[in-house]
């Protein structure tokens, strides 16, 4: 642990400096791994409900439209063929699962790389102290002051033991996302400009790597 970061109070005053693990916040970029974790995350969320009817599923008569020969027209079968209006679709999409497997160690490393990017670009802000707010207006004042640090448009706040009142207070704020530490993932870190973490979350990351 040879990296340092400042800890601030909710009044944005520096309270102390702590050590953080370089195995979490000191990794080099890996664009191919970041691409894979983003793709894996998005494919997991994809519904995969697109569906078209094939020839056997379309309703209609199975009678041949006109004789095969001597009509002067092109050859055709019944009205359910793909070439006809209202006919079935040939090779169309069917409901399926778009997700794919990704190694757990790769997912963990991708999360640490995304955290390292935030630290390296001074987009990681650590706070300490209880956050007791119940109103959206109170939460807005806090996050607006944090946004002014680097003019960030989207802020992700990762909290260790988040209270339901805090979640409710932040739910209606545009550009502010609150996430429980247990649900921390690379995609959410990458999607937001500024990452705010409480000191307890940072310590938990350090402790896990020491085991």
TrEMBL record:
InterPro entries: Ribosomal_uL4 (IPR002136), Ribosomal_uL4-like (IPR013005), Ribosomal_uL4_dom_sf (IPR023574)
One function term, GO molecular function aspect: structural constituent of ribosome
One GO process term, biological-process aspect: translation
Pfam families found in the cross-reference section: Ribosomal_L4 (PF00573)
Disordered: annotated span: 51-103
Keyword list, A-Z: Ribonucleoprotein, Ribosomal protein
Compositional bias annotation for Basic and acidic residues: 68-83
Signal peptide: none
Domain of life: Bacteria
GO cellular component: ribonucleoprotein complex; ribosome
PANTHER family listed in its UniProt record: 50S RIBOSOMAL PROTEIN L4 (PTHR10746), LARGE RIBOSOMAL SUBUNIT PROTEIN UL4M (PTHR10746:SF6)
Family, per entry: Belongs to the universal ribosomal protein uL4 family.
Entry-linked NCBIfam families: rplD_bact
Protein's recorded name: Large ribosomal subunit protein uL4
């Amino acid at each position: 642990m040879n990296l340092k970061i400042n800890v601030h109070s909710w009044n944005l005053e520096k309270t102390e400096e702590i050590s953080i693990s370089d195995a979490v916040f000191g990794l080099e970029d890996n664009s191919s791994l970041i691409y894979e974790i983003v793709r894996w995350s998005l494919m997991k969320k994809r519904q995969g409900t697109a569906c078209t009817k094939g020839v056997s599923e379309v309703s209609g008569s199975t009678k041949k439209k006109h004789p095969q020969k001597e009509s002067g027209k092109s050859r055709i079968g019944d009205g359910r063929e793909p070439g006809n209006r209202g006919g079935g679709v040939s090779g169309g999409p069917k409901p399926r699962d778009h997700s794919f497997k990704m190694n757990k160690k790769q997912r963990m490393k991708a999360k640490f790389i995304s955290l390292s990017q935030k630290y390296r670009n001074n987009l990681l802000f650590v706070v300490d102290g209880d956050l007791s707010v119940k109103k959206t207006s109170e939460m807005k004042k806090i996050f607006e002051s944090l946004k002014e640090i680097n003019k960030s448009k989207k802020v992700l706040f990762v909290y260790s033991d988040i209270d339901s009142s805090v979640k409710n207070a932040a739910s209606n704020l545009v550009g502010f996302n609150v996430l429980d530490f247990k649900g921390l993932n690379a995609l959410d870190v990458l999607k937001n400009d500024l990452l705010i973490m409480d000191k307890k979350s940072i310590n938990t990351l350090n402790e896990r790597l020491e085991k």
